[in-house]
């Protein structure tokens, strides 16, 4: 997402009192995303870092053990993604 797109989605949300920001959870550069709607905060469970990273998850299946590798985006990208998702879902751009 480029700067113009980010401005378009974030400004539409902010005008309607929806603010999204990272919250530091420790000093090693880990963050959780907070969505603040009219002063009510909702903290997401996923942990993000300043850079995208890969997370390995091992799951058991009936045929054996399977390893999943999931790419977790940086908190910058996730904040932008949430602004876009909320603006489109609630039709803030119209």
Structure characteristics:
single chain, 94 residues, alpha+beta, two-stranded antiparallel sheet
Describe this entry's structure for a reader.
The protein is an alpha+beta fold. The chain has 2 helices and 5 strands; from the N terminus they run H-E-E-E-E-E-H. Helix 1 packs across helix 2.
Report a brief summary of the structure.
The chain is α+β, with helices and mostly antiparallel strands and 94 residues long. Helices cover 30% and strands 41% of the residues.
Determine the number of helices (DSSP H or I, runs of at least 4 residues): 2
The overall pLDDT average reads 94
**pLDDT under 50 segments (min length 5)?**
none
| Radius of gyration (Å) | 16 Å
Order of helices and strands: HEEEEEH
How large is the share of residues in beta strands? Answer: 35-45%
Largest sheet: 3 strands, antiparallel
How far is it from the N-terminal to the C-terminal residue, by CA?
20 Å
Helix and strand topology:
Elements: H1 3-15, E1 18-26, E2 30-37, E3 40-43, E4 53-61, E5 64-72, H2 75-89
Helix pairs in contact: 1-2
């Amino acid at each position: 997402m480029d700067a113009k797109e980010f401005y378009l989605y974030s400004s539409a949300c902010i005008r309607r009192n929806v603010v999204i920001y990272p919250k530091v959870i420790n000093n090693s550069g880990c963050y959780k995303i907070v969505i603040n709607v009219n002063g009510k905060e909702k903290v997401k469970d996923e942990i993000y870092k300043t850079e995208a990273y890969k997370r390995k998850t091992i799951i058991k299946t009936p045929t054996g053990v399977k390893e999943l590798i999931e790419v977790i985006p940086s908190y910058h990208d996730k904040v932008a993604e949430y602004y876009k998702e909320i603006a489109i879902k609630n039709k803030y751009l119209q």
